Every structure is written in C-alpha cells, then in structure tokens.
Amino acid sequence: MATTEAIATGEGQEAAALLERTRETVNPELRRTVESLPGSMRRVAMYHFGWEHADGTPAAGNAGKAIRPALVLAAAQALQGQGHGHGQASGGQVGDAVRAAAAVELAHNFTLLHDDVIDKDTRRRGRATAWTVFGIPDAIITGDAMMALALRLLAEDPHPASAEASARLAACVIELCAGQQADCAFEQRAYVSLDECLTMATAKTGALLGCACALGALYAGAGPDEADAMDAFGREAGLAFQLIDDLIGIWGDPGHTGKPAGADLLARKKSLPVVAALTSGTEAGEELAALYAGPMSGDDVRKAADAVDRAGGRDWAQAHAADRMGRAVQQLSRAVPDLGAAGGLLALAEFVTRRTR
Question: What is the pTM of this model?
Fold first, then answer.
C-alpha cells in the first residue's frame, strides 16, 4: 500500500508494520459500524472510506493511514507493558480497545467530511471528495452520523473504561470544533499571532491525537494521571504532526498528497509556517502579506511558497516540530518510565514528524 511504501525504510518499518496491523484489526469493526448507517448516508460513508465507488460498486479503497486508531492500540500496549492493571479497567487486553480505536477513527473522519466542505477541497486520498460527488448536505449529514456512530460504539461497549472514554471523546470533539472555528475566523483577519495559531492547531489536531492516547491508556487499566500524561504526549505529538502537515500543504508532492500543489496557499490559509513568515518582520514576510491580500494565481502560489521559505517559515516549522516531539517524549515518560515499552508510540511519533507527504 502507498502508506506503507512511504515509510517502509529505516526506523519507519516499525511504524509501517504497526499501521498495517491496525488497519487489519480495526477496519472490520469500522466497516461493520459504517455499514449500519441508513441508505444514502451509508453510501456516502462507504465512498469516503474508499470501500465503494460513487455508484455503490466495490472499490479497493484507501481508508487512510490509521494513525489515530494505531495510537489507541499502541498506548494500550505501552501501559500494559508497564504492568498496569489497576483501576476499574483492570485485566483488559489490547484487543479490548478495538472499539475505542474505531470510535476515534470515526470521529476523525467526521472532521474530514466537514473540513472538505469548509475548505472547498475537491480531492482527498487521490479521489474526488464526498461533497463534490454527493453534494454538501449529504456530506455534512453523513459526517454528523459518523460522530454519532463513534459515541454509540463507546456507549455500547461493555468495557469498564467505556463511559470515561466516551466523555473524553465528546469533550475532545468540542475542543476540536473550537479549533476549527478559530481556523476559519483567522482567514478573515489581517493579523494572527503565532501564539493564537499554535493554540488553534493544538485544539484542531493535537486534541484528537491526545484523546486517542488517553483512551488507549484507559482501556489498559491506567489511572487518571497516566491517562492525562498520555493525552499530553499525544497533544505535543499532534502539534508536531500539524507543523509537518502544514509544510506538506505548501511543498508536498500532489502525486502523493492527492491535492494540488500549494493548496493551502491558494486558499490563503494562515497555516503555522505562513503565520511564522507573516510575523517575521522580514521583507519576504511583507511580500507574502501583499500576496495574501488578494486572489492568488498559480504563479502567485509559487511566489508565496518562496516568500514563506525566505522569511524563515519553513525552517521555523521544522525546528518547532522537533522541539514539540522532545516535549512529547517527556510527557510520555511520566506514564511509561521505561520508554522501551513504548516502542510503538515512539515509532508512530517518528513517522508523523519525518514524513514528507
């Protein structure tokens, strides 16, 4: 698979194997749950996950990299490796967290369906986005249904940690929506500070990765302190993930991203490297501000990418991603003092901060 090929070298081999195992383990539960949707919503969801073509015929599919469900299972494995089994969820196995992993992936895809509408993105995972095929109302409604499915999965799960997991996921989605709202508001503002942008990115991306890690900890029988430490690990790693994602949004290869080159610049999004450049006080930053003040052509996108680079936005984002990963490991050590037991989590963190597409 393309996602495996992208990381199947060096240290990425462990992450590749973990992601592949996660897909094999979680996708049957994910698909079973999606197939429970009524008629038209099921059709949109099956298309979005790549399991069907727009006409409902079977497709080979690309349901995504499965990073978030992999974090759930890897966190559960790490905490059980430390001998955790105390608390109300004691005695569980990693396999018990499959429903929680599927719930996190459903919540993630709820955001993707809505984000594609908000951002007017026409391509995802190498194919037309759901809203361009089925219309905006059906895409939004199906996203809403996916979020309801996620909470239903947890509500029906007999695992002792399911109630706390459901509460954490619901709170996370509210925070995530606040981050998305801030992101949209930034597009209408001439000036956005770097601190505001970092806060937004932590909510929009870090919150769900943190929640995924916390849910894995809870399903392993860890207590609230360990779950909070795992949440903090995921948040820091999530911010590093967003920084790299923002770089890919400017300089990523369309053949691998499935989106046009410089798509974020064309939409004049105030991503982290862009805001770092705009607030740099440099001549290149002023050039970028002038380009962002009006509609962008293809040539303007190339000029804007060059301006971000010359203003230091690219270097800042790369350095800050590395710094955030350092903080993430510190948080992880609070929950898993023996980091040797957290190999899966560290491999995933390495993947999300070193990927180039």
Answer: 0.89
